[in-house]
Amino acid sequence: MDIPSDTVRAVRTMGSETRRPAGAAPRGRGRGRDRAAWGLGTIAVAVVLLLAYLRTAGTVPVLSDGAGNALQAWDMLHGNLLLHGWWVTDVSFYTTELPQYMLVEAVAGLRPEVVHICAALTYTLLVLLAAFAARGRARGRAGLARAALAAAIMLAPQPGAPAWILLSSPDHVGTAVPVLVLVLLLDRARPRWYVPVIACALLAWAIVGDPLTLVIGVAPLALACLLRVRRGRWFELSLAAAALVAVPVALAAGHAVRALGGFATNKGVSSLVPASVLPGNVSLTGQSFLAIFGADVGAARGGLNVAFAVVHLAGVALVLGAVAVAAWRLLRYLGGRGELAADVLVIAVVANVAGYFLGFRIPNIYAAHEIGPVLSLGAALAGRIAGGARVWDRGWAPAAGTRARPVSRARVAARAALAAGLACYAAMLGVAAARAQPPPQNVALAAWLTRHDLRSGLAPYWQGTSVTLDTGGRIDMVSVVVGRHGRLAPRHWEEDLRLADPATDSADFVVVAPGGVITEAEARRSFGRPVRVYRAAGDTIMVWRENLLRELGPAVS
Fold first, then answer.
1. H or E segment and range at residue 510
2. Which of 383, 463, 498, 551 is an S-S bond match for 85, by CB 3.0 to 4.6 Å?
3. DSSP per position, 139-205
4. Of 557 and 218, which is predicted with more confidence?
5. How far is residue 103 from each of residues 97, 99, 440, measured CA to CA in Å?
6. Between the CA of residue 264 and those of 211, 268, 271, 337, 491, what are the distances in Å?
7. Angle, alpha carbons 137-144-123 (nearest 5°)
């Protein structure tokens, strides 16, 4: 017997009305409340995390790397937008972290605390973006579980080396921010012509600031899209093209900056290492991976740090499991049936670790900043995979005409484990934030120079820009090394070489640090006998009555 379609629709409508609980809000109003709750909850969590990470970042002393970034941003804030005269490191952070430093300095001024504030802001942003990238399009308890899993993995950076890597000066960790924004774009935006345009602009912008974007952004997006085009989908092809076009766009922007007299960048340190180096890189790569997740049990010292590391092993296990599952799905669903965002994340994680292993002579655990983005990208992937399991579904919502089903033991156990893990990580974050806050590295030297009215001088790198930041720019320091013929010379590294021009500036003292790259004998060989020699703050300060910049050798790399 044929049943009219109108009758079928009426019956379905009646069923849907039956399933809606009495007094429930209409679907549109419920979604609005859900969005409002997520928005208010995100703001509240962001404030709490920012304060906690600000305290944790304060346990890491401000060094010359962060001081250089702060001085560059200060120069940009005062009109030198292209950083004329500056030689930066092999990474400029010009479009990534430096704008953030400018905003903070516009409010807080030039001071060492700016480095801590920006580190805390960046890490807070990474935690929130990883949580939303993990949530994807999921809603309700499943979406909350995904976001909570990702946030928990990142929540409590381990004191010591992990905090130095994650909550210090800019060093690749924050480059995950534009990549996570890209993941959110892929998740939320509908297939429209302007999405590839936005993706191209976002990637090009990030490449200018950090070429690591090529590894964790451009290559993953292009490869993931090309693996999905068996059906000739225009959207995936256009996204792949957008990722590739971003490279020449970024190169053109860099050439434009240099042509206009802007900053110069040093040559990168990465290159394919010889086979003889790879065995040594194996253990250091594994140790670096554990370190960024706060799970390096072998290097932990003291009961509290060991406890931190052991608990963080759970996050490592989740990420490794998620990478394995996501890689299997990527290969299984070639042709476009999997999630594009998850494909991009897993390729980015694998590419970053592989590039680290194959492209660097890893000296120690502190080189782990090269794979810093793996923490947030891996956490987002783990949230999507582990949080996508059915154990997070409601489980008790009855269908029309059926009895409510009890929550299974697996669901109860999973939810209890997540709650316990979050509570444990939150407690560890509180412990880390309560640690002592050391003063800036060279604050005693800066205070001594200020009292003795010494305003312009020369120093090794680790005393140079650090002193300038400690004094709020009142003392100008030029970083020097031993150059040609044994004479001291400026260095092309985080340095404003305009300060080394004797026609416009002067310097009348040299700081010699114990075990530093320059000695008293080398300073005397370059400038002759000083008129005064002081011992202060553990350093030696040698003073002359002439402009030492006239005797400097040519700048060296």
1. strand 509-512
2. 498
3. -HHHHHHHHHHHHHHHSSPPTTHHHHHHSSS-SSGGGHHHHHHHHHHHHHS-S-THHHHHHHHHHHH
4. 218
5. 10, 6, 22
6. 14, 12, 20, 45, 12
7. 90
> What would the two tokens of residue 468 be?
């300038």
Element holding 482 (H helix, E strand):
strand 476-482
Question: Per-residue DSSP letters for 374-442?
Answer: HHHHHHHHHHHHHTTSGGGS---PPPTTSPPPPPPHHHHHHHHHHHHHHHHHHHHHHHHHTS--PPPTT
Q: Is the pLDDT of residue 494 over 90?
A: yes
Cβ atoms of 69 and 115 closer than 8 Å: yes
- CA dist., res. 182 & res. 133, Å (int): 9
Q: What is the mean pLDDT of residues 237-259?
A: 96
Enter the pTM of the model.
0.90
Check residues 435 and 13 and name the one with the higher pLDDT: 435
What H or E segment, with its residue span, contains residue 541? strand 539-543
Q: What is the DSSP letter of 477?
A: E
Q: Which residues face 495 on adjacent strands?
A: 87
Residues 86 and 465: beta-carbon distance below 8 Å: no
pLDDT tens, residue by residue, 62-109: 999 999 999 999 999 999 999 999 999 999 999 999 999 999 999 999
DSSP 3-state of 555: coil
Beta bridge partner(s), residue 458: 478, 510
432 band by pLDDT with thresholds 50, 70 and 90: confident
Residue 226: phi, psi to the nearest 5? Answer: -65, -30
Shortest CA distance to 214 belongs to which of 175, 253, 252?
175
Q: Which of 14-23, 320-329, 332-341 has the lowest mean pLDDT?
A: 14-23
**Rounded to the nearest 5°, which phi and psi values hold at 23?**
80, 0
Residues in contact with 522: Cβ distance below 8 Å, sequence separation at least 6, in sequence order: 482, 486, 488
Residue 537: pLDDT band (50, 70, 90) is confident
Q: What's the one-letter identity of residue 260?
A: L
Residue that the structure tokens 């509180």 belong to: 430
Alpha carbon distance 376, 127 (integer Å): 7
Tell me whether residue 99 is exposed, middle or buried, using C-beta atoms within 10 angstroms of its C-beta: 0 to 12, 13 to 18, 19 or more. middle
Least confident of 17-21, 46-50, 132-136, 300-304: 17-21
Q: 324 CB contacts (<8 Å, ≥6 apart)?
A: none
Residue reference for tokens 């900053």: 263
Closest by alpha carbon to 550, among 495, 478, 494, 468?
478
Q: What is the mean pLDDT of residues 1-21?
A: 44
Alpha helices in 409-544 (DSSP H): 409-433, 443-451, 461-470, 520-527
Inter-residue contact 71 to 473 (CB < 8 Å): yes
